């Protein structure tokens, strides 16, 4: 798997946004509601108002609670999410948003982001956005398993259950549960859409 600075940078440019949009309609996705299980998984977690970190085009954001907000370092992706009727900001815009101050969100969602980042950058990402979370709020981390990890050249570090727990611990979060979705863990070696999911909570004070 390539780990060049150009690969990492490419998640911030317009070509990456175009790639995400193309993948949304590729193959079987044109014919079947392939996102239905993932929408259900998010909704059953009852996350309330969510800050979706690395929201991309808004695939997960559109399935979060009312008034949820996305943030992404790719301004083209942010613009696309807005065109879809979602509320999304770049990090700089989020810092200035009147309704997004400290403690404004019930939950943080970080889905398919950490595998794009070096370890130190990933740790800093969680620290950066934790102030936006209410005391006792939830933090949900999702990453691809082996088959999914291999599908994207911008993935730079495999992040499994062990690494997710380490990120949560370092951020001062309490891990509530981890699970493989939508299929058992073994499927992740061949099914590219199997995910690691960690659900955690922030301190209450």
From TrEMBL:
It comes from Streptomyces fildesensis. GO terms for molecular function: 2-polyprenyl-6-hydroxyphenol methylase activity; 3-demethylubiquinol 3-O-methyltransferase activity. Coiled coil: none annotated. It comes from the Bacteria. GO terms for biological process: methylation. Transmembrane segments: none annotated. Keywords: Methyltransferase, S-adenosyl-L-methionine, Transferase. This is Class I SAM-dependent methyltransferase. Pfam families: Methyltransf_23. The keyword Secreted does not apply. InterPro entries: SAM-dependent_MTases_sf. Its EC number is 2.1.1.222, 2.1.1.64.
């Amino acid at each position: 798997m390539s780990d060049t600075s150009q690969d990492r940078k490419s998640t911030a440019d317009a070509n990456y946004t175009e790639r995400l949009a193309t993948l949304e309609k590729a193959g079987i996705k044109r014919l079947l509601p392939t996102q239905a299980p993932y929408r259900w998984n998010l909704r059953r977690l009852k996350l309330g108002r969510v800050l979706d970190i690395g929201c991309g085009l808004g695939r997960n954001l559109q399935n979060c609670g009312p008034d949820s907000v996305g943030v992404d370092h790719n301004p083209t992706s942010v613009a696309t999410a807005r065109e879809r009727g979602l509320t999304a900001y770049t990090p700089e815009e989020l810092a200035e948003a009147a309704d997004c101050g400290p403690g404004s969100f019930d939950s943080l969602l970080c889905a398919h982001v950490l595998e794009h980042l070096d370890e130190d950058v990933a740790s800093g990402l969680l620290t950066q956005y934790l102030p936006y979370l209410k005391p006792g709020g939830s933090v949900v981390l999702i990453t691809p398993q082996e088959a999914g990890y291999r599908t994207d050249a911008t993935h730079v570090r495999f992040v499994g259950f062990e690494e997710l727990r380490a990120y949560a611990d370092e951020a001062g979060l309490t891990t509530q549960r981890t699970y493989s979705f939508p299929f058992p863990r073994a499927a992740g070696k061949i099914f590219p859409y199997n995910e690691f999911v960690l659900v955690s909570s922030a301190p209450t004070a």
